[in-house]
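Table S2 (continued). Query chain:
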Amino acid sequence: KGSKELTGSPPLLRPLHGKSEVEQWSDMYTVTSQISLTVRREDDGVPVVCEVDHPAVKDLQTKHYLDVMYKPQIRVSQILPASGPTREGDLLDLLCQVEGKPEPTDTTWFRVDDEMPAHVIVSGSNLHISSLNKSDNGTYRCEASNEVGKSFVDYMLYVYDPLTTLPPPTTTAIIPTSTADSRAGEESVITVVDHAVIGGVVAVVVFAMLCLLIILGRYFARHKGTYFTHEAKGADDAADADTAIINAEGGQNNSEEKKEYFI
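Corresponding output:
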């Protein structure tokens, strides 16, 4: 009857407006009620009930299920790698899941920003790359269509560098230290080198000082206070003591002119 707000289960039905017409034929009446509403994809399969309120009847109603057509709904899932970023050498598997009414008839994969690489395998709704490399970086699009329309979803692929592998362990024994600082070993080596250099310098200095002391000792031993006077001149060649005194230069008279020479 006229304009009426509809409520029910499921709660996907929204306020609706309509009109009703009444026609009289003798003692009989014909009532026509019409409603209009905007539906969405979620309204597909929801029942709409028309109920008659009359004293002669009880709970007289009719039901109609909505049949909503909608364009494809797309979701792209990464199957492999199952977790973590995509890296060089990894296997990539993408699945394009499509839902629509009527059923989508055409699902395609293509690359948006460049041509599809030759090593990429597309099988129906799946895209497969056996070994990723940096040239695979780009945007890959899954597109589907049906009688209602066309939809697409983009997948951005970025290939990271491969993980670095550690070298195999060797048999060399490693003595653990009490500190995690890698500079500790370098400092100990530098300390040992410094002590060796200082010890060598000290040894050279001590040796040089000993050599200098020996040379000075020999020099002073050979020149320890030797001197003579003019009185001794000529006495070296005399045959006896009297002759030496006589030959001595200056004699006793020149004693005041004695001079000493230190060599």
